[in-house]
């Protein structure tokens, strides 16, 4: 194939596969950035399988090996099935196996000793393979290729962790005498070679020309209708995206159209499947069994059964979180329903690309939620269809990321001065702090790990941290699933409604010490939403620039937040039924923020008196948080905000927007560098909304801790006008390089919070990213 394409000198539909394979076989790391269903898998399988089938023996007597990394377990399992089907006619030369947290322990020893193509994820590489490298020595000595699939997902804090995990892998391989070639693939990456170099630390060749055939994709933007109901402060209420998506999934299933409905939260996936099943049962009871939910937190056997049913066509419809967004080959899928903008254009096209993978035409429908960003996109489709996907940017030098990986590397093999260049310029500065914390010790010419516990346990690379909370049925003791520790306060607090496999449970108690939530099955007519309080203080101002009389600043802050209550809302309408107080401990987060201030003169020019100042700031804050994902590769729940009429550190009216990750994730920095465009779009979104006094489509948040009080829509527009009058021109060259922007969005619902003394604020939800840095690792701002 490679020779034929080269000799012909023409653009074959699959020429990108040939070029990528040729680079890999020549020993060059390569990234393939072509569309969904363009055959990227063959780009890396050709060199991998040809090498494994070659039969050549490595110096240690074991044949060449390859490692495949996927961001999700589902994708690794799907790829393993494909490899086995492809290599079956070739005998037993290719021994492929999945090695992840679901792999039975009795199979793991066989995989270590005999598998030559191991499919896993960065989490298992970080916690399992690298710390146990002596047991994997024969595999690592012969490692020829490392495949990194869906590489665009490794961005922000998660991507920064993965970048350091890959550097640890390269270091160990070098000690064993191996220098693997890295093969990366993504359907939605901007500047793929740049991102791949940052991720791997190696020069990478880019293959991006895509001539593969594809069917027509019809893309619809769907805005739910207004209802007769009224929400907080009498604002009009639209039908929820969840209810609309459930109706669409029902209609598609009735017509025999194989479909997936993507939703942003685990609870949303369960709700859509329950609603669709109930409505399908009214048409044909057999159809109700052909729709299900798929999300993280299920037991391994439940996930595998759902994947098989979807792959075989037994399931007609599936309501899924982004756990199914990536690369799974679901042939025959005809339609995708996306309940709410997924946060980035890259994720939007990944989800839409799940349909039509067999070359047939396909339908994708984006159902807008009632919030500023979704409403803006429905009315400005050019922001989706006329702009490229976001750059995948990451910051491996973030000290909160780097410090635990230096400890892990030192435990794997003593860390020498020669190793430091591999880990970046910040490494040398961190070592004295790690020594002062008694985590590392210098002996002769190397740094050694000093503790008995495993250094790899210092950090969770997905930012979740802590032991997962087990969800247990109180009456039977049956384990239903797990919830990330950081999400427990907001999702399984006492009184929370918890959905699992179409069944509804109510949490009776949450034991944080034992990490157990006891639930009992129930049928409430409502869902629950947690609310928090927050306060923020400025630790250090790195940069500030004048915006007329006001100032735009960027620096380090400390945020303290606490879940204080939860709301009960009707499932379909979102109507608030009541609020219940909670008593949970506070959490502290050191992170990075952008903030802006205005002066008394500016307030006078904007005709904003003290009575409406808090509402104007609060409304501007809500809208700016809602619009930031359009300018930074983030989910809106990865960021938080606070608005204060008189902040003690600035002594001025101030609006803060901060990263919901320890040490920062680059979102606030990106906001700082694109502030003029970001706040201009925010002003436009608020001013163009047809409501009178503010609604969820512009300045209201359904999860605001202050109950959306105070809010002043017109005051927010005038405030943004006077602020933007003094905004300097943005620098366009290298804007994408301004700082890290983007992170793997957690599955979660985002929860609004209020600051003490009535200070409005917004906080990221589902909280893995809310947890403070491990106290054993020195917090380096």
Word description of this protein:
This protein has 781 residues and is of the alpha/beta class. It has five domains: 1-207, P-loop containing nucleotide triphosphate hydrolases (Rossmann fold, 3-Layer(aba) Sandwich); 217-377, P-loop containing nucleotide triphosphate hydrolases (Rossmann fold, 3-Layer(aba) Sandwich), CATH 3.40.50; 399-457; 465-524, SH3 type barrels (Roll), CATH 2.30.30; 532-574 and 584-726, no CATH class. The chain is 33% helix and 24% strand. A hairpin with a 2-residue loop joins strand 21 (497-500) and strand 22 (503-511). It starts with a helix and ends in an 18-residue tail after the last strand. GO terms for molecular function: 3'-5' DNA helicase activity; ATP binding; nucleic acid binding. Keywords: ATP-binding, Helicase, Hydrolase, Nucleotide-binding.
Short description:
The chain folds into 5 domains: 1-207, P-loop containing nucleotide triphosphate hydrolases (Rossmann fold); 217-377, 3-Layer(aba) Sandwich (Rossmann fold), CATH 3.40.50; 399-457; 465-524, SH3 type barrels; 532-574 and 584-726, no CATH class. The protein is 33% helix and 24% strand. It is built from 25 helices and 31 strands.
Explain the layout of strands and helices.
Elements (H helix, E strand, L loop, with lengths): L1 H7 L6 H11 L4 E3 L7 H15 L10 E5 L3 H15 L8 E3 L6 H10 L2 E4 L1 H8 L7 H5 L1 E6 L7 H20 L5 E5 L6 H9 L4 E3 L9 E6 L3 E5 L5 E3 L2 H14 L4 E5 L2 H18 L1 H4 L2 E4 L5 H13 L4 E4 L14 E5 L5 H8 L9 E6 L4 H8 L2 H4 L13 H14 L2 E2 L3 H4 L3 H10 L3 E4 L2 E4 L19 E5 L5 E5 L4 H4 L5 E4 L2 E9 L4 E6 L4 E22 L2 E21 L5 E6 L5 E11 L2 H6 L4 H18 L11 E6 L9 E6 L7 H7 L1 H14 L24 H13 L25 E4 L5 E4 L18
Parallel strand pairs: 1-6, 1-7, 2-4, 2-5, 3-4, 5-6, 8-15, 11-13, 11-14, 12-13, 14-15, 19-23, 24-30
Antiparallel strand pairs: 9-10, 16-18, 17-18, 19-20, 21-22, 22-23, 24-25, 25-26, 25-27, 27-29, 28-29, 28-31, 30-31
Helix pairs in contact: 2-3, 8-17, 10-11, 17-19, 22-24, 22-25, 24-25
